Amino acid sequence: MEGVSERGCMTEFWKEHSQHATVEEMMLDSNAQELSQLELPEILELLPPLPGTAVLELGAGIGRYTRHLICRAGHVTAVDFMEKFVEKNREDNGHMGNVEFIQADVTKLDFPEHSFDLIFSNWLLMYLSDQELTSLAEKFLRWLRPGGHLFFRESCFHQSGDSKRDFNPTHYRSPAHYNHLLTSPLLDQSEAAERRCFGFDIVLNKTVQTYVKMKKNQNQLCWLMQKTRRDVVEQHQGGFSTFQEFLDKQQYTRRGILRYEKMFGSGYVSTGGFSTTKEFVEMLDLTAGQRVLDVGCGIGGGDFYMAKTFGVEVLGLDLSSNMVEIAMERAVKEKLPLVQFEVSDATKRRFGDATFDVVYSRDTILHIRDKPELLRKFHVSMSLNKQICFFCEDLWTQSQNSDSWLKPGGKVLISDYCCGEQPWSPAFQDYVKQRGYILYTPQRYGQFLTEVGFRDVFAEDRTEQFIQVIKSELQRAEEMKEEFIQEFSQEDYEAIVSGWKEKLQRCETGDQRWGLFIATRA
Questions:
Q1: Looking at residue 323, what is its pLDDT?
Q2: In a 10 Å sphere around its CB, with 0-12 CB exposed, 13-18 middle and 19+ buried, how is residue 24 labelled?
Q3: What CA–CA distance (Å, rounded) separates 332 from 329?
């Protein structure tokens, strides 16, 4: 619209699409009723526990989510800048009491510091410019209490709804762009005696499965982020402000991942590739219909293998968005609806009680500092609190504490980098520090599983197998040297071979070990 500011253009767009305050207008889709019915429980399941919390809902529209948030939270502030949407929301949900309705442009909105525990938005940020979004992210950090969460859902890459649009001012960003815009801002709340900086860490980033199933559209994505400390002394390797940034920009760049895949074999970025995957998965006695959680899924080769071979459903988590991006690209080609992927921090992710039959993890937990706490998520079961909301006929089940991700009798299988007894060589100490690894002996690793309550714990030092795998991979690298150099470069080849030889040397000196661990939930 020539001569109209971007914000004015956005206002005109929504005036045109809010005439009747219907769900079809809100979702810009003729099939909105069915889509809404299916996606509501999917989205709500991803939210953190809400009893007694203060929630800010931005872009609330006619209240599709408002009434469900009211049922769960202590208080909801519902904001939209379209008058007809706000009126409809107030008419339908105002009687529920613990809610305030505000008509306002989010770019001009302000609240006192530490006002909310959760900020929730659905299809809002894509209607803001990068500058507006960055400014709003800074406000989010002020408005949220420490440890509070931000949930948002957006259309990425291209339009999803089928409604006719004479003009479309929407910003269809990539997930990586959202990650950058939301995790870059910092809030400095330092005092004289203490430095206190806050930023957003990603808890999860995943596709909305309702759109995948109904429209074969993988471009509807949602995020859950958490306001966390970002003090200089707590920053990760190389000055990166988050561990995910360290992974994506240094340890697991897209090029680096593809180099690893060339060594490990197509689809794999963990020791032994397909051969060790086949060997270890056979130990799980998988049967069709079971659900598997893969913690540190990489680019998904093992997940596709399990789904194809055994007919199991697999959810692959990885904190590296580069890994998940490649996995999702491969998933489109594989056409396997049994396999899903999400960018996720396993230490912060929540699942319902007894969700999975198997937790599977290959060479990933080496990154996690508090391993016992993660293992407790796999095993520990706490009592549930149930709340019934009569206003929205909504049964909501959620626990005050972490539920067990595994079903009773469920299995966990982990392979991981381990270490020998200290003292370590100076070279190994430098390697562990540079990578940010937290390593234990295979024996201690097995004890962790026992201590959190697992039974039938099998803990085995597999370093000799690891050494043989490294040697075979080095031999294969020599055989495909010209192909590797043509695909990457001479420098890449020399770097990867040097890295493998150093890994072999660390194992042969006894500093680096490799362990295999299998256990059963009581």
A1: 95
A2: middle
A3: 5
CA angle 16, 19, 25 (to 5 degrees): 80
What confidence category does residue 238 fall into, taking pLDDT thresholds of 50, 70 and 90? Answer: low
pLDDT over 80 at 91, yes or no: yes
Measured CA to CA, the distance from residue 56 to residue 77 in angstroms comes to 5
Going by pLDDT thresholds of 50, 70 and 90, the confidence category of residue 369 is: very high
Long-range contacts, stretch 184-188, CB < 8 angstroms, 24+ apart: 184/134, 184/137, 184/241, 185/134, 185/137, 185/138, 185/141, 186/141, 186/230, 186/241, 187/138, 187/141, 187/142
Domain tally, the chain? 2
Q: Are residues 71 and 118 in the same domain?
A: yes
Q: Is the peptide bond before 423 cis (omega within 30 degrees of 0)?
A: yes
The predicted structure's pLDDT at residue 170: 82
Q: Which of 203, 231, 259 is the last residue of a domain?
A: 231
Residue that is last in its domain, among 231, 255, 278: 231
Specify if 41 maps to a domain.
yes
Q: Is 292 in the same domain as 225?
A: no
Residue 259 domain boundaries: 245-379+403-521
Q: How far apart are the first and last CA of the chain?
A: 64
Supply the DSSP symbol for 48: P
Amino acid at 186: L
Could you tell me which residues are beta bridge partners of residue 187?
198
pTM for this structure? Answer: 0.85
CB–CB of 23/64 below 8 Å?
A: yes
Is residue 264 scored above 80 in pLDDT? yes
Q: Convert 113-127 to b/e letters by CB count within 10 Å (16 or more is b).
A: eebbbbbbbbbbbbb
